[in-house]
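In line with agreed milestones, work has continued on tokenised descriptions of protein folds. One protein thus recorded appears below exactly as we store it:

>
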Amino acid sequence: MDATDWELIIIGAGPAGLTAAQYGARAALRTLVIEQLSPGGQALLIDKLENYPGLFPAKSGYDFSQDLYCQAGAFGAQFLFDSVLALEKEADRFLVTPSGGQKMRAKAVIIAAGTKRRPLGIPGEAEFAGRGVSSCATCDGPFFKNNKIFVVGGGDAACVEAQYLSHLSSQVVLIHRRNRFRAQGALAEQAARNPHIEVRLNTRMREIRGDTQVRSAVLERLDSGELYEEAAGAVFIFAGTLPQTAFLTAEPGTPGRRLAVAFDPHGYIVTGGAMETAVPGLFAAGDVRAGSFRQAVTAAGEGAAAAHSAALYIDGLDGGADR
């Protein structure tokens, strides 16, 4: 395989990137997907994907991701498992630099790099990572069966993961610093009704303590300011996400010269309705995009739209000629 020249490069292999790969390959574009971890992105963390239209009965996020990956590959998309260090543009071609070092050229690029978990930034969080602190209940939850487990967060992920952990322990404590959850109403209600989940609102985790592993957590009641320490076997953190856009924000003169991409105040990429960014030929889809609903079904739709827009853009570059 010629590893340097492509028509379409997709950065990220979550539902948005894998769907874009399928649509790009089906449009007869020479398509490469670059993914730093495993195909599926955040979907890999879903225990049961039960709200994807037509996917019934529910399927695990891993199985769903493997289906998307195999489907894109069957249509001809190629994959490179590596991280992207830089994205530049020279004339009408993009230059993508993976950590392997060899620059790749593409006529169009779709950024579907998704997000990563936002850390709490409290003492003990980094020190006990992998020793009782985690952000993947399906990955690490079974290690803490029948332990007292704290789940930190107020969004969809926190409620869903707390539900999963409640099958492993009858002592799950879900804490959120606000007086109401940000999660979808149905998910928040399910967590509140679960007899194995204790919900504590207006509560913040201040510190994680232990020896060779997590032993306790220091909590604060925000309505009174009271600090107290409570025994804990594990802490699962779902405190929001950060967009994966570091390769777009390098300073001029460094690898990955800054592109004129517009970001919202939280660092997500601003696009138009056709998933186009402010840079011609550069598109964004999925969780990394400002205003995205951040669900697998909408990510897939955005990926399809981005690939369609990229194909139209490439046709314009080629003057409508057959590829």
The mean pLDDT is 91. Helices lie at 15-26, 61-74, 137-140, 156-165, 185-193, 296-317.
